[in-house]
Amino acid sequence: MKETLTEMMIAMMPAMLPMVWAGAIILGVGLIVLVLNNPRPTLTFSGIVILILGIFFVAAQFMGQWLSMTPAINFGDPTKFEFILVPFWQIGAADIIAGIFLLVARKWV
User: Fold this and answer.
1) Distance between CA 59 and CA 55 in Å, rounded?
2) For the chain, how many structural domains are there in total?
3) pLDDT tens for residues 61-101?
4) Is 63 among the domain residues?
5) 33 domain residue, yes or no
6) In terms of residue numbers, what domain contains 89?
7) Digit-coded pLDDT (tens) for 21-37
8) Whose CA, among 8, 23, 81, 106, lies 20 to 30 Å from 37?
9) d(Cα 34, Cα 106) in Å, to the nearest integer?
10) Strand (E) positions, 1-109?
11) Do the domain assignments include residue 73?
């Protein structure tokens, strides 16, 4: 069972960085739409997607820890031996806070 889960996690690792950037783009769209006239539907969508993405990253961190791995995303350049590792739980926490902010902000406008 653990071997299968480890293989799944290793297979998912290349897709994690694009998910981080997709979350950042969705957050950016949500913040831009915040200044528009009727942003409620977009803020609701953005907030829920960011919140789900944050919960996913926190769950992936716990699952990785359970599998004795250290799940992190490298924002450095490995060809230059730059390793800026950010754990999944930090990305997830930032996404959860941003998602809650967007969901609360939709009630203000």
Assistant:
1) 6
2) 1
3) 999 899 888 888 888 887 888 888 899 999 999 999 999 99
4) yes
5) no
6) 38-109
7) 999 999 999 888 888 77
8) 23
9) 8
10) 72-74, 85-87
11) yes
